[in-house]
Acetyl-coenzyme A carboxylase carboxyl transferase subunit alpha
Amino acid sequence: MASKLTPAQRVALARHPERPGTADFIKHLFTDFFEQRGDRLCAEDGSILGGVALFHGKPVTVIGHRKGRSLEENLSLHFGMPSPEGYRKAQRLMLQAEKFRRPVITFIDTPGAYPGLEAEARGQAEAIARTLALSSRLTVPIVSVVTGEGGSGGALALGVGNRVLMLENAVYSVLSPEGFAAILWKDASRSDEACGVMKLTAADLLELEVADRIIPEPEGGAHTNPAALFRTLDTALVKELNALGKLSGPALAAGRYKKFRAMGAKALRKERT
């Protein structure tokens, strides 16, 4: 594990521009990746990257948020904030995985869904809701990995997994620290303080039983030694998929439902005591 960092420092690492993204994980963890584009309804949204690949020789479906490395790429990808077309593409890939009995692996790294007028007009909330509903009832294994910044429903849409893993310096929350501070204290400059209040770090979420496992990062963050991180995550994914592969389809769907229904119960018990 890395040295002790404050929640605000972990948020900064989760947002680091050189942090490995979905495209990097696909390149280094999988082989024979075949990208699939378009939602078959409206358009292609590059901020969701997905397709079919081989993981240790076995077919899987991979879906993740994609950010750019340059300003131009980030602008074209809305800084990793998907539009409805992206979530509908994810639905298409999930249905395909269900049909062909492929496990689904998702990579989460987004500030949230794109809030633009066009996205809202084309049904942003409906697209997220349908993605949540669909992933909750799939009868194939789903492993979700929060790799950077997991924000709001835009992140949760890809986060309904049988197992939820978080990289050590990843964060996962209902909204950004800046948004939290602006709403609660009417002062977005108190975002560092908000990071500590929100309980958004991997350690916090493991304690709250939202995350199931923390993936250690190299000292200084994932970007300092990506190869070491890829090896660690590869081992974790193999273990999780092997365990989930022993369960029946109905058991996978029921277990996922039970897992998410129970979230928050531990925090509530603590509050009452």
